[in-house]
Each structure stands twice: as C-alpha cells, then as structure tokens.
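Figure caption, in words: inputs first, then the predicted bound structure.
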Amino acid sequence: MTTAAQSTRTIPMLIGGQRTLGSGSETIPVTNPATGELIGRIPDATTADVDAAVRAAADAFPAWARLDPLERARHVTALADLIERNAEELARLDVQDNGSPIREMRGDSGVAAAQLRYFAGLVLQLRGHTIPTQFERLNYTLRQPFGVVGRIVPFNHPFMFAAAKLAAPLVAGNTVVLKPSEHTSLSALRLADLLQEALPAGVVNIVTGYGQTAGDALVRHPEVRRLAFIGAAATGRRIIARANESVVKTVTLELGGKNPLVVFPDADLDKAVDGAVRGMNFTWQGQSCGSTSRAIVHHDVYEEFTSRLAERVAALRPGPPGDEATDTGAIVNKSQFEKVQRYVQIGREEGARLLTGGDVVDSGDLARGMFIRPAVFADVAPGSRLAQEEIFGPVLATMPFTGYDEALRIANGIPYGLTGAVFTRDLRLAHTVARDLEAGYVWVNDVARHWPGTGFGGVKDSGLGREEDLDELESYTQAKNVHVNLG
Ligand code: NAD
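Bound structure (nicotinamide-adenine-dinucleotide present):
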C-alpha cells in the first residue's frame, strides 16, 4: 500500500524486466478522488519509452513462444498465485486510486486470478484442424502467436483489467505491452513487481502515460500487429483508424454501452427492482460498460417499479471508499465528476423527473472528495440525450412502454449494443427478447455478472470481438495452413 512517505514518489514502469522512470522528465500526479490527496506520481511515458517497451517485448517473444505450452501456463498460474497472496493490498491500492468501495474492489483480484487460471487451463485447446484434401496429401492448420500485443485498459477496474487481460495473449504465446489508464495506474505498477517474480524479463512490459501520447505510440507502433483496447467508443473508433495507418493490424475493441433492462408486467417485481439496482453497478458508481442504465418498464407496473426503485437507490450509502459499510464511493476524476453533474442537469432540462439523488455530497468525511448520490430519472424520452448517451456514472434513466415492439424499438434504438437484461416469468417471451436485443450479452432475470468461459463483448458501437472465452484465446493467434505432398 502507498504510505505517506511514498506519496510523492514516482513509481517506475516495467520495461525489459527493469524498473524505469523512462526517458522523459514529466510525471503525472496521482490523487485520491475521495480525499483530493496526492498519493504518488507515475511516469508520463514518451514515444521512445513505448518503443523501448515494444522492443523489449519483441526480444522476449521468440523464447516465450517456444516454451512448451504447459510451461507458459505454469508461469501464468504462478502469477495468479501471487495475485491471490497480495489480494488485500491490491484492492486497497485501487480503492485509493480510483475511489470505488473496498467491498467491490476486493473481488477484482479474485476475478483476475480466475481469468488467468481459466486461460492457463485452456492452453491445450489451442488446436488446429486437419483438412481432407487428397489421399496423398496432408493439409493442416497451425495456430501461431502474433508477436507483440498491445493492451490498453480503462480506469474502472484498474487491477482486474491490467492483470486479467494479460492472460489470453500470454497463454497463446505472445508478449505484451500494457498501458493502464493515466487515472489509475498504481495497481498495474504493483502488478509489475509480481510480474518480475512470475515471468521472464520482457514478456510483459508496462508503460504509463496519457492516451494521446503513450497510448497513441503503442497503437501506431509498426511492430505491434495485434492490439486490444477497452475504453470509450469514441476512443475505439479513433484507435482502429490510427492503428492501421502504417501497417495492417488486428484490433479488437471492448467499448461503452447504454444498456437496456426490460421489465414486463408479469415479472417478479422484487427481483426486477433488485436487478435494476444491481445492474447499475452503483457499488462502483455506475462506472461500468455493462451497466443497465436504461430501465424500460411496462407501463402497468411503471409507477410501482419506479417508486420502489427510487426508495432502494436512495438507501445506498455514499461513504469513504475504504469503509466496509460504504455502498457507493467517489467518482474517479474531475472530468467524470463534472460529466455526471452535467448529465443530471441535461436530464432536468430535457423534462425528465428526477426521483432521487444526483446531488453532490460535500459534507463531513466526504467534503474533499468527488461524491454524487446515485440518481434515478423517470419519464425519460427514449430519444433524449439522457437516454442515448453513455454517462458512465451513477445515473439510471427509466422509461415506460406499452407493447413488445415498442419495448424493442426503445431497447435497440441506440448506437450501442453491449449488454441487455429482461425480466419476465414467460419463458417464450424471455427467449424472444434475448434473440431480438441488439447486444453481445443478455441476462434473463439477472444482471451484471459474467463468468470465465462466457464470451463478453459488443455489437454496433460497443465493439468488435469477444473476450473471456476460447474465442479470445484464439484471437491472439493467426492460422497458418500447411499443405504436404506425401506422394
Ligand atoms: P478512455 O477511452 O478515455 O480510455 C481508455 C484507455 O485508452 C486509457 O488507458 C487511455 O489512456 C487510453 N487512450 C485514450 N485515448 C487514446 C488514444 N487516442 N490512443 C490510445 N489510447 C488512448 O476510456 P475510460 O474513460 O478510461 O473508460 C471508460 C470507457 O471504457 C467507457 O466508455 C466504458 O464503457 C468503457 N469500458 C468498456 C468495457 C468493455 O468491456 N466493453 C469495460 C470497461 C470500460
């Protein structure tokens, strides 16, 4: 954990197995969003630093790719062991750095370790095919790694993304350059210590810095032929264009969402209300791509649903993120904090009814932090900005519908398509909605959770590709076809 004495220390990056502050003199201050306190500094990596990291990864690649697959898997499992041993410290680092409550952040290292173990266990499933061509011919495919993979991750689950997203590329035999968010790099830099123990030098390199500079240098680097990005849709669109400016790259994108939760009148209303609360991920301030931030509710149950929902949300307790009793913590940074407030104002101006929350909590322990009480709006017009744009904060928009077609028109009438949820007791209806929703992941009478082995990803502006399953592992390989004349 960062102590007061370390608080203004610059924490070094990891390049080629060495800790380094990089070639530039600039650093980025790290502040605790719950207190405004300076808790450290991270290097502002230059293009030369990113280049050094890519070269280190390229140098480490041949030996890593030639290791026996089970040996690579053993290294990845060793990393999972180290993460589990340091779980509490890692969770507390994220709490300080990103403002989410300890109860929530504690789960993240477990999720990361589970993903690492899952992909390590899949290593022998990276199989090719034999293809019957002619009796005297053998035709088969090999799955081979790309080389250096660039992974760029966002701020909302800093450690989980930094660690879990190494698993598939590494197991497939690639080496990695990882860039965490400039807002939340501390736990990734602590991960660097564990990587130094678990993996050969250069197999994973971590560079910190801004998206426009360090991120862009990684995106454009000609030796990075495979890039995976998690972040905002606008950034994803820019990245895919930039990535392919000089060489052809394979790019996958996990982007934002404005996800629908559709409640039919026959639903178990207790479960549906509970789903709407949990689905918003208020326990990390709604800062989740998968949040079901539009509740589309049949008008026969709309009033009852929204009043029960507002009561439940009003009872969530904002508090210091380190406290076990805290339900909802601080917004990660000033620009997100202002963005959420701006959308609360937009909602009012658009004529939606604010049922609860939306106000800044600025008293007592929370006075110096960026806390907003979770908000629920009613009667949100489906075409309004509040209903259409991703806020990535604790703001839930509810809107009524009358018939199936209208529900689906509203649910699908947005540029995004990441997740969706439906609440009904009618089996046929549930599966029909699941079929018709434009989304990459649909929950029936449930929300929020995903599991290793179940592919996660979006359609439309929510992204390209699937993660957390065998498809992700295979996406870090390229197929080669081999034709042999036996005659
Ligand atoms: P962001 O797009 O601002 O930044 C994400 C990462 O990209 C950061 O590391 C940032 O430094 C880097 N970056 C920014 N501009 C870049 C550029 N021009 N070139 C290269 N790198 C650049 O997103 P954010 O604010 O950190 O995260 C929130 C967004 O992430 C939301 O839209 C959310 O929905 C999305 N998200 C999606 C998923 C998913 O699995 N689909 C998961 C979590 C978050």
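The longest strand covers residues 137-145.
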